[in-house]
Specification:
The complex is a heterotrimer.
Chain A: H1 16-23, E1 27-32, E2 37-41, H2 46-57, E3 61-69, E4 73-81, E5 90-97, E6 102-104, H3 113-123, E7 127-129, E8 181-185, E9 197-203, E10 206-213, H4 221-226, H5 247-262, H6 268-298, H7 303-323, E11 332-333, E12 336-337, H8 345-372, H9 375-381, H10 389-394, H11 399-404, H12 411-414, H13 435-461, E13 485-491, E14 496-503, E15 509-515, H14 517-522, H15 525-529, H16 534-544, H17 548-552
Chain B: H1 13-21, H2 27-65, H3 81-91, H4 102-119, H5 137-158, H6 162-193, H7 198-206, E1 208-212, E2 215-218, H8 221-224, H9 226-240, H10 251-254, H11 264-289, H12 300-321, H13 327-357
Antiparallel strand pairs in B: 1-2
Helix pairs in contact in B: 1-2, 2-3, 2-11, 2-12, 3-11, 4-5, 4-11, 5-6, 6-9, 6-13, 9-11, 9-13, 11-12
Chain C: H1 5-11, H2 17-23, H3 34-39, H4 44-59, E1 62-64, H5 70-79, E2 92-94, E3 102-106, H6 114-123, E4 129-133, H7 135-139, E5 161-163, H8 170-185, H9 196-201, H10 209-217
Parallel strand pairs in C: 1-2, 3-4, 4-5
The chains are: A alpha+beta, B mainly alpha, C mainly alpha.
Chain lengths: 553, 358, 233
Amino acid sequence: MSTLEHAPEGAVEVDPDEVVDRLGDRVIGRDEHVNAPAVIIRPDEVVDTLTVMRDEFGFDLLSCVTAEQFPDRYESIYHLKQYADPTTEFSIVVPTDRDHPQSQSAASVYETANWHEREAYDLIGIEYQDHPDLKRILLPDTWTGHPLTDDYNQDKPQVVAYEAHENPLLDHTEGAESDTILLNMGPHHPATHGVLHLKVTLDGEQVADVEPDIGYLHRCEEQMCQQGTYRHQIMPYPDRWDYASAGLINEWAYARAAEDLAEIEVPEYAQVIRTMGAELSRMAAHFLALGTFVLDVYGEFNALSMYAIRDREKVQKILEDLTGQRLMFNYLRLGGVAWDIPEPREEFFENVKKFTDEELPASMDEVHDLLTDNEIFQLRCVGTGVLEREVAKQYGAGGPVARASGIDTDLRRDDPYGIYDQLDWEVITDDAGDVYSRVLVRVREVEQSAKIVRQCVDLLEDWPEDEREIQSNVPRTLKPDPDRRVYRAVEGAKGELGIYIRADGTDKPGRFKIRSPCFCNLSTLPEMAEGEFIPDLIASLGSIDIILGEVDR
Amino acid sequence: MGLPVTPLETVLLPERIVDALGLEGYGVLGEFVAGLLAAFLVANIMLIMTAVAGPWAKRKIRARFTDAIAVNRVGPFGLLIIVADAVRLLSKEIIIPEGVDRPAWELAPIIVALSALLGFAVIPMGSGIHVADPEVGAVFVFAVASLSSVGLVMGGYASNNKYSMLGGLRAVAQNIAYEIPLILIAVSVVVFAGTLRMSEIVAVQAEPLILVAGIAIPSWFAIVNPFAFFLFLIANLAEVGRNPFDTPEAPNEIIAGYQTEYSGVYFVLFYLGEFIHIFLGGAIIATFFLGGPAGPVLPGFVWFLIKIWAIFLLTQWARSAVPRVRIDQLLDIGWKGLLVLSFLNLILTALIVGVIAA
Amino acid sequence: MSSERIPDDVERTVQTKTRDARLGSGVDDRFNSRLRQAVGSSPFILTKFDKFMNWVRGSSMFMLQFGIACCSLEMIHALMIKHDVDRFGAGVPRASPRQADLIIVPGTIVSKFAPRMKRVYDQMPEPKFVVGMGSCTISGGPFQEGYNVVKGAEEVIPVDIHVPGCPPRPEALIYGIAKLQERVANGESSPVVVKPYELEQFGDLHRDEVIDQLADRIDEDSLAMRYNWGDSP
């Protein structure tokens, strides 16, 4: 039944022994993570090792950099993947001294390491040498201490004087000679979709330089998850990462990682419900992306953004029927879902079918009429904010942003979970890499999601009544074996949403790290916007579709 | 040259007031008082229309386009929102930011509102409402309307805010780019009419063009020269700064541009100026292309209002449905598109008029 | 702001100032004028005028286009077709704080954003109103234990109405706004905070007792933005 026989083009087979041989004396040990083999290397050989991994073994995606603190050492883990085949994974573990946590920076090999290492420095305190710009990224510059370390005193008040914030422009006063002006866009600006701060250097109307400044919504999600128990207390938080209704996908990301960690099986029936819910979430998220993007390009209160929100409202209604909440679902459980399809089932399925078969095609026609076929819209969006394919890879872009740049990647197909591999759907890609293609990819993905939902409904309708098992048997308290580590990702609405968990033998994670797709996608913004006009900067930002809750976590 | 024009015996509003109040005996003083009263009346008509349009009609129209409802709790159909909004806006605190260029900052909104209001002085609104009818009426109305860009750049520059500055610069660039085509198209109308006097331009359009089934189609310039009408509509959208040409304001890019720092009364003046400007644009279109206050059955003034509200509706329609173009594209459209086309239009009109005259 | 209130206000410690301000006593006199104070009691015409002005302020509000976190999505929904808060005259979003009356705080406030939000609030002209949306603006909500999270919007700005929920449904937000409008129309709303630039202006005024008292009691430090999460509720 699978139509998704994806022959990974350009994927390189990797044998861990061969890697160890090739790396030679850089390696000081080997390890095995649940998801991938790992080698432990010396902290002064990071650049060489990663260059070899990238150039000779085909690892063109640095998924994530996880930093951890142990009683005797610090560790940075570089999770490597291949765009062509994300199941080929490799972890490079770099331990450093507890007293002087210094490690070589990987920013010269992978662009995306830049921001990831800044985050690791900010929260854990590992100093990356030769890093181009090692400063705090999520917390204010005045912050003292690194909050995810064991000796951090959380109760000590951190006082930030009002004067420190009095005039953010004071340090940037340009001389009379300067041809450029510095424009602070945000953190409160209608087009930043939340609380993002862009330091924009303008040459006339042209953008000479953009520097995103994030952290205005850093809600300590990793700390919250490390304080919660696997079984119950963590699940509500994923809903609040990508809060644009992609909640079920986020929950699935956690569930997938934790289920692999604790070796929990999920019943097939629950997988179907999960798949359906996740795709509904994706549709809601894409509708929001469309609505807010249109706001940026059209101006407030135009018809199309209203229509997009209207359709989103319909999806939310279905999700509310299914999960009991409009936005923060908390519906998935480890080993299944919280409850079955609501009774009467027929009515629920009727509603879903009415939406996917009648209402959605009509509103998609409307979108194409008003948006993608609109000549002024094309004038604005075609050829602006271009993100080249290779650049996108360097920055670790994912989701619609990567697919619009011609990278054929989708974890639902390449690293199948749920029942995606049994369904008939397509991965949408586009080669142009501009604002227009990003919007188009998203619009088409909504159609594909509807197709998946429709097939799930068919499966669920015919499911025999006595086999509707929604949860497998999971112990009340989960205590995975100590030092088991797993990095697992799902295809979020914005790209690869990965979770790294290290178990420490208790019922709470020792380290919980979130790899946020928006975080990586946002870092591509300077590549898109530099040299363009201010309106293009706004449009590019809108087309990346960032959710600050996920960027800052 | 041009079409034969029968000189109209127009009675202007001040003269009527002089008659009605018996001010003949007071000479110049009487005329001055009458002129003031007339201006007061016309300004108030426009202000009332703006008050209806700004807080209420705009929201209701937008709601219609987007399947929403908009204000309906305050008074019947939400009409009392007009009172509430106006009084509230006027009673808000005025914040004067540090470092603003005081006289310029305070003058800017006044200039914006005033320039648009002044234009109505020469517009014949029908039913005898016509304040002044100078021989150069058409020149006057464009000259005064473009004064507003001075106000915009003053406000943008004096606000000591980079967003305002960008907005002010955009406003000037845009107004220059679109003012020229606008005037060139108007010149083609003037060539047709053979006069700059507004009342005569209206009178020329009253001539029947052809007879269709016994009904005389008037020679409105929108019918005579639909090409020019279309161009003028586009240029006018840019002139009043509405979608797709609302770049000087662009709340999602530069946070309302030149108005960013204004609050309270000054903001009201800007807001007011914007709407009066839209109405002035509508009035110019009505006068130049739609036969001014002409129309069957209803009194002239009602027809005039219908025409300018139709133009207002058009701007709101565009606002709901059309994306905003980029500033460089906007200038391209203005300089490379509209300007060329309006020249073409002017030359063709001149040729045709010349042939007819010959 | 009446003269009796100010001294208490200044005496309070920094951390609890906004919270206590909310709890202030009785019907407040936020829109009071010097004229009224000079007359003493309120003559009939002023009472009627008050009623009218309260009705005006309660019936129409421009809101600030201000999104922070999850709740802002439900705020968008409240603005858009189905819920359409514009029915109540509160649905005109303004991008610039200078033209807004109402700020809805839709989400978690963290250390980096708190001073910025205060700035935005300070930039709004009086009279201004605040609706705290969601649990995070009440107490920090699910993130209360976070090292970086400010425990509620009231640590930073005074809040008129809290709408609980995580996130509140759009209906709940609309109910909150309607309640706020009702309160404003009845003349009840929380007191105004003194802005730094207003304090500076006292220097130019004719010095009277109140000003002297104020000048003694205002301590430069109390104008500092700080948040102390050790001490938070």
